[in-house]
C-alpha cells in the first residue's frame, strides 16, 4: 500500500513546525535506528497524540530500551505506530497499568490488551513525552511497523511539520581490494579519500589508480532544515560507467534482521574509530532486503588501462540528492623497489584482511627477501608481491589453509589461527581451555579463529569482528580454587577499555558456560558486595532513593510500607527509584523497608519511617 500524505497525524505538536534529532536508517552500535526521534523543546511532559484511529495492542514499562512505550494497531491499513521513552501514560491506560503493577508487584511490565479495551481515535492524547529507558535526552521515539514487524520510514508519509530542502553530505569514501589481485594506489590495502565540494555536489581531487575486484564505502550524513543534528541518509546508489551496479533503500527493515547492520557497514572501522562507512556492495551473510545490485553484488572489477567513471548518489527521505563523482584508472600491479632509512634490521608483522593474509617483512637488504610460511612442518615460500618503504608485502590466500607460523630473516611469528570456522553451519571448537559452539547463524563469513588465556583473562576471537547470533562458550577459570562462592561468580565482558559488562553463565562443576553476541576479552569475577542505598527524600506523598551496585548490577528492588508492597519506579540513568501510591488520597505513613538485590544475589536493606 502506497503511503499517503496526511495518513498519519504527527504525534508531537501536530500542525506546528517540528524538528528531528534522529531519522530512519541511522547507524547504531548493533541496529539501524528504526524511526524518528522528535525533539520536545529539551523538556518532558509534552502531550503525545495518537497518529490514527486504532487500539492500544501492547504497552510496556521498562528500565532500559524503549522505556515506557505504547503500540497502537491501525486496522484500516494494518500498520502499527509506537511511541517510546514516555514520561507517563495518559488515563485510563495509566490507571490500568498502575493497578496491574500492584497486582503483580513489579515495576517492569508488558501487557497486550484486547482490541476493545483501549480504543483510540486520531488525535487522542495517549501519554506525555519523557526521557525513560535508554534515551539520551528528552524526546519522543516514533515508529511505524507492519504486521510482520518490519520498520517503515515514517518520513515517507510526508509530514508537513518537518521541512527538509537540505541534501545529504558525502564526506569520505573508502575503497577496499576484495581479492588477492586487488590494489588501490599500488597497495593491497583499504584507502580512504576525502571529498571536495564543488557547487552542490562532490568530487575527489585526484584520480584513483586501482586493479582487481573492489568494494566501495561511503561516509554520508543528512541534515534537516533548521537543525544541526547528523541524521541518516536513506538511499545510496553506485553507478559505474553509466550503469547502476548497486542501490540500497533503508525502509521496511525486518526487526529480527536489524543486527545485520554489522555487515551493512564497515564494522571494524566503526568499532575502532566510531565512524560509520556504509558499504556500496552486499557483503557476505547480509540478508537484509534493502538492496538492488548486479551479479557481483555491487563489487566491480578494474582492468589495466581502462577508465571507470564512478558516481555515488546519496538521497534523503525528501528526495534531496547529492552526487560524488570521481575517476578510477586501471593500473597493472607492478613490483617497485623502495627503501627507507628508518629500517635498521629485520622486522615482521601481519594482518588478516578478508581471506587474505598480508605479511609485511622489512630488512636492510637492497633486494627483497622471500617470506617462509610453515604449516604442519612443511615450508612454503611466499614471494613478495610488491615493496613499500623497504617492506616486502607478501599476500597469501588463507582458503588454502592457515599456516602455523611465519619466518623472515631469522624472525619468527606464530599466526595463532587455530581454525577456520565456516559460516552457515553448526560448529564446535575446542582447545585446552575453552569450548566454543557456533550455530549456523553465528557468523557472516569465514572466521579465522584465535583464542588466548592470559592470567585470568580469556580472549575469544576478535572484538572487531561482528557476530550475527550468539556463540556459547565453556571455560574453566584458572583461579577456580580462589572463588569462594560460585553462585556469586559470573563471566564479565571486558571489551577494550576498563569497563566490565555482566555476561553471566551457568556453572557445571568447575566449568561455566555463557552466551555472547560479542567476541573479545572475558573474565570470571566474583561479586560479594551488596548494592548501595541512599535516601534522597521522604514525605507523605513520595519517598526517593539512589541505588547502585559496583559489579554485577541491580537485579530487583522492592519497597514495603507497614508490610504492604509499595511501587518504586526506576530511572537507571540517574540511579533513582521513587514511589508511586496506588491510592493517591492515602498519605505515606509508617515504616518503610527497601530491599535491593544485585544479579549475584547480594541484598541490601534500608529501613526508615515517614
TrEMBL record:
It comes from the Bacteria. Residues 32-90, 120-149 form the M23ase beta-sheet core domain. Signal peptide: none annotated. CDD domains: M23_peptidase. GO terms for molecular function: metalloendopeptidase activity. It holds the Pfam family Peptidase_M23. This is M23 family metallopeptidase. It comes from Pontibacter cellulosilyticus.
Amino acid at each position: 500500500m502506497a503511503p499517503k500524505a496526511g495518513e498519519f497525524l504527527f504525534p508531537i505538536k501536530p500542525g506546528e513546525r517540528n524538528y528531528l534529532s534522529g531519522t530512519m536508517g541511522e547507524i547504531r552500535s548493533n541496529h539501524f535506528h528504526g524511526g524518528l526521534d522528535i525533539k520536545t523543546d529539551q523538556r518532558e511532559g509534552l502531550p503525545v497524540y495518537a497518529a490514527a484511529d486504532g487500539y492500544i495492542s501492547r504497552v510496556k514499562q521498562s528500565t532500559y530500551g524503549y522505556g515506557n512505550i505504547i503500540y497502537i494497531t491501525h486496522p484500516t491499513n494494518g500498520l502499527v505506530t509506537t511511541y517510546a521513552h514516555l514520561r507517563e501514560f495518559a488515563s485510563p491506560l495509566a490507571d490500568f497499568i498502575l493497578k496491574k503493577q500492584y497486582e503483580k508487584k513489579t515495576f517492569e511490565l508488558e501487557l497486550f490488551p484486547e482490541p476493545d479495551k483501549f480504543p483510540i481515535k486520531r488525535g487522542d492524547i495517549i501519554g506525555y513525552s519523557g526521557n525513560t529507558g535508554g534515551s539520551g535526552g528528552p524526546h519522543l521515539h516514533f515508529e511505524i511497523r507492519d504486521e510482520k514487524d518490519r520498520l517503515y520510514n515514517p518520513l515517507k508519509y510526508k509530514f508537513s511539520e518537518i521541512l527538509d530542502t537540505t541534501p545529504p553530505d558525502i564526506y569520505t569514501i573508502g575503497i577496499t581490494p576484495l581479492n588477492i589481485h586487488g590494489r588501490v594506489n599500488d597497495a593491497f590495502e583499504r584507502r580512504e579519500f576525502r571529498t571536495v565540494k564543488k557547487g552542490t555536489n562532490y568530487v575527489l581531487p585526484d584520480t584513483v589508480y586501482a586493479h582487481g575486484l573492489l568494494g566501495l564505502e561511503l561516509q554520508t550524513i543528512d541534515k534537516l532544515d533548521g537543525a544541526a543534528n547528523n541524521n541518516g541518509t536513506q538511499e545510496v546508489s553506485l553507478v559505474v560507467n553509466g550503469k547502476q551496479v548497486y542501490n540500497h533503500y533503508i525502509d521496511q527493515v525486518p526487526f529480527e534482521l536489524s543486527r545485520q547492520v554489522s555487515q551493512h557497514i564497515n564494522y571494524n572501522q566503526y568499532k575502532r574509530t566510531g565512524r560509520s562507512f556504509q558499504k556500496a556492495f552486499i557483503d557476505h551473510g547480509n540478508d537484509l532486503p534493502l538492496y538492488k545490485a548486479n551479479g557481483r553484488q555491487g563489487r566491480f572489477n578494474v582492468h589495466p588501462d581502462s577508465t571507470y567513471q564512478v558516481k555515488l548518489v546519496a538521497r534523503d527521505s525528501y528526495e534531496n540528492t547529492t552526487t560524488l563523482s570521481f575517476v578510477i584508472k586501471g593500473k597493472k600491479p607492478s613490483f617497485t623497489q623502495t627503501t627507507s632509512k628508518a629500517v635498521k634490521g629485520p622486522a615482521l608483522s601481519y594482518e588478516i584482511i578478508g581471506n587474505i593474509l598480508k605479511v609485511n617483512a622489512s630488512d636492510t637488504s637492497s633486494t627483497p627477501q622471500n617470506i617462509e610460511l610453515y604449516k604442519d612442518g612443511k615450508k612454503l615460500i611466499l614471494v613478495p608481491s610488491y615493496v613499500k618503504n623497504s617492506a616486502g608485502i607478501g599476500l597469501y590466500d588463507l582458503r588454502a589453509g592457515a599456516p602455523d607460523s611465519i619466518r623472515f630473516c631469522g624472525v619468527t611469528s606464530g599466526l595463532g589461527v587455530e581454525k577456520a570456522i565456516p559460516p552457515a553451519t553448526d560448529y564446535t571448537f575446542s582447545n585446552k581451555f575453552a569450548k566454543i559452539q557456533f550455530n549456523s547463524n553465528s557468523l557472516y563469513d569465514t572466521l579465522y579463529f584465535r583464542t588466548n588465556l592470559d592470567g585470568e583473562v580469556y580472549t575469544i576471537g576478535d572484538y572487531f569482528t561482528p557476530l550475527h547470533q550468539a556463540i556459547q562458550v565453556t571455560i574453566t577459570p584458572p583461579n577456580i580454587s580462589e572463588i569462594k562462592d560460585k553462585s556469586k561468580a559470573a563471566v564479565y565482558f571486558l571489551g577494550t577499555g576498563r569497563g566490565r559488562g555482566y555476561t553471566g553463565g551457568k556453572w557445571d562443576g568447575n566449568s561455566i558456560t555463557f552466551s555472547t553476541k560479542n567476541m573479545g576479552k572475558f573474565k570470571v569475577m566474583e561479586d560479594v558486595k551488596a548494592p548501595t542505598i541512599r535516601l534522597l527524600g521522604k514525605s507523605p506523598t513520595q519517598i526517593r532513593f539512589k541505588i547502585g551496585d559496583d559489579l554485577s548490577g541491580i537485579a530487583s528492588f522492592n519497597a514495603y510500607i507497614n508490610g504492604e508492597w509499595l511501587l518504586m519506579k526506576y530511572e537507571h540513568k540517574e540511579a533513582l527509584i521513587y514511589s508511586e501510591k496506588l491510592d493517591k488520597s492515602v498519605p505515606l505513613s509508617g515504616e518503610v523497608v527497601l530491599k535491593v538485590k544485585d544479579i549475584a544475589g547480594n541484598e541490601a536493606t534500608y529501613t526508615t519511617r515517614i
